[in-house]
Structure formats: C-alpha cells, structure tokens
Design a protein that fits this description.
This protein has 258 residues and is an alpha/beta fold. It is built from 10 helices and 11 strands. A 6-stranded mixed sheet has the order 1-2-4-6-8-11, with helices on both faces.
Length: 258
C-alpha cells in the first residue's frame, strides 16, 4: 500500500526529515494566486513540502476552490528554492492514530484523483527535486517544466526493495508509456533533468522558476482557441482508465494500510 511503502522510502531520503515546530511556517501551506486567468498554486510547507495530512487537505481544498472559479488553467509549483516536493511526511506513519492514518490515506487518494482528473489544463513548474510523491504530483499534471540543475525526479521505490502501487504505476505509464515505465520502476531510476526531458517525464527544461512558469503559461494559452468543453471532456476520457482503477480499489488500499 502506497503510504506505508513510501514511509520506508522516505526514511532513506534526508530531505524528508520532519520539521520542528520552530521551523513550521506561520502562513498557509498552499497559496493560490490569479495570473491573467491562470491559477498558480504554490506549495509552501517548509522545509521540503513533505505531504502531511494538513498539506494534503489544503491541496485538496485549493483544487476544489480553483475548479469552482473555472480558470484558463492551473500551474502547480513550490515556494521552496530547491525542492518541488519530497513526498510523504514520515511522521504520519510513526506510531499513528488509526483515525488520522485513515484520513491521511483518503486525502492522498483525493488529491491525486482531483489533480489527475482536473477538468482544466494543468502544468507543473518543477523548481527542484521531485522524488516519490513529488514526482506523482508532477506527473498528474498534463505538462511539466523542470528547472535545470542538479535536480532529479522519479519513482525509486524498487531500488529500495519496495513495490509501487497501481495508481503510481498507472500515472507513470500514462506519462512515459508502459515500456519506459517498466524500465524506470524495475531499476528504481531517478532521472536528471536532461534524462527526464529525453524520456518525456518532463516536457521542457527551464533556466529558473520564472522561466518554468512562463513556459507553463504558454502551454495553457495554447488552448485559448480550443472549445473548453471539448478539450476538457477529451482529457477526462483519455484519463478515464486510471481514475476508474483507483476508485475501484480505494477501500481495499486503505484497509491494507490500516
């Protein structure tokens, strides 16, 4: 089951260390701003945007709010200088309360369902490392632009003796195809920016965060002359399979986690 497996992964990733109360941000974990009709959603849970229950709840609510406003599109990015998102917060898995852990699993699923099935154009401006759950959030978007540098992106569970669950696999298959996904997951590959671009895990490289956001905007603006209802329905039809799979297996997955 994903959250439990990612806990084992996160325990070996220094960037997933829990933050202390003194380093917790005073402001909201998610900021949403309007940029010419394009919603820009910024994750800002220092130090590494690790996905705890509260951040997942904030992302879920923000996705609902953005969808209600019917934007031209949405850009997902990070306020942190070198990390897009480090994935699951391991403190959620250490001696957890059953009710909170159940909420955590449900909210993680909710966020993916809403983002992968978001009815408007989505793009990720990846301004740093994106392992595990961070890679999942990026892949759930339609378009990905990653800042050049010594950053990596990917799902490396297999390298640590872990098996990625079905909706992670479905998302990567949808992004880079079955054959490339098989090779990436069986080898636990973490991709450098140029490698991610070559394989199609990202669509463009950028010089910095501002450049990444600009390229995401250009992607979204391509649909200005396309009928929104037709575009959005086509997107959801193409993504119907993975969405149906997770809905079918949600209860089983949560039960296994608990």
């Amino acid at each position: 089951m994903l959250p439990l497996r990612l806990v084992r992964l996160a325990t070996r990733l220094p960037i997933c260390r829990p933050m202390s109360a003194s380093t917790a941000p005073a402001g909201p974990m998610v900021d949403v701003a309007d940029d010419g009709g394009i919603a820009v959603m910024t994750l800002q849970r220092a130090p590494v945007n690790s996905l705890n229950l509260e951040l997942l709840q904030a992302i879920s609510k923000a996705l609902d709010d953005v969808a209600k406003n019917k934007p031209k599109g949405m850009i997902l990015t990070s306020a942190l200088p070198t990390v897009f998102s480090a994935g699951v917060d391991i403190t959620e898995m250490y001696k957890p309360e059953v009710q909170r852990l159940q909420q955590y699993g449900n909210n993680f699923q909710d966020v993916w369902i809403k983002l992968f099935g978001f009815p408007f154009p989505t793009a990720a401006a990846i301004n740093g490392h994106a392992p595990a759950g961070g890679c999942l959030l990026a892949m759930a978007c339609e378009y990905r632009v990653m800042v050049s540098g010594k950053y990596t992106i990917g799902l490396n569970e297999t390298a640590l003796g872990i098996v990625a669950n079905d909706w992670f696999m479905d998302t990567m298959c949808h992004t880079i195809g079955i054959r490339n996904t098989e090779l990436a997951l069986t080898t636990g590959k973490m991709f450098a920016v140029d490698e991610a671009l070559e394989i199609g895990l990202i669509d463009e490289a950028a010089s910095d965060k501002a450049d990444a956001k600009d390229k995401c905007k250009k992607f979204i603006k391509k649909f200005d002359e396309i009928a929104p209802s037709a575009r959005n329905a086509t997107k959801l039809n193409i993504r119907r399979g993975p969405l149906a799979n997770i809905e079918k297996n949600r209860k089983t997955e949560i039960a296994e986690m608990l």
